[in-house]
Amino acid sequence: MFKRVNFITDSITVSNVEFSKASQSGKEFGIDIDGKIIYPPFSDQNILIFKGRIGKVEQGTSLLGKGYKVIPTFANITVQFPNAWNTILDMNKANSIYEDSSADGIDSFQDSELEKIGWNAIEFDVTYREIAEHIEKVAQGYIIYIERDDPYMFSGIAFISKEHRAEARELATKFVKEQIEAKLEKERDEFTKYGFSDDQEEALNFFNIEFKA
Fold first, then answer.
1. Is the pLDDT reported for residue 60 higher than 50?
2. What is the distance, to the nearest Å, from the Cα of residue 194 to the centroid of all Cα atoms in its chain?
3. Are residues 43 and 131 in the same domain?
4. 81 shares its domain with 139
5. 32: CB partners within 8 A, 6+ apart
């Protein structure tokens, strides 16, 4: 199941000792989604909530800059980021698997293999949304997002690390294949009578599905 982080309501806990070392070093560092302090070179597998260096801090400004709140305790630092979404989105968007929003939905996968699955699935009315929701339930990954209720608004990006992508592709393929087979059975008479379009034939071959009239 995907881990979900709402940037309006959730926070990240960071070691006070590690944060102090990084902030006082004058060097660039990052804080990832799990609260770990990391240093360059950053990997495309890092989901960053902050990247930069800490210099002179103006009065009334957060240590991490505009949009962030830093709340120190004895052992840890709690980092909140209610107004840093656009900054964090820009840092991570290129490495995401897909984008999702209440305005545009999900219209593609940035992983080429998942995109092939999605592209063929739509020939039998299995949507990117359905595939993504299934992956979120059964695969390992992250969704970082902002969500408000009134008026409703959602904007998020999803991530699957390289070590878990093969599993996610297999789970997505299995799900889509089951959905198509169920549709073929339900509409058997219609498909027997009218057959398949060229694109549907290609999709059947892609998912290794054999239809017997």
1. no
2. 39
3. no
4. no
5. 38, 46, 47, 48, 49
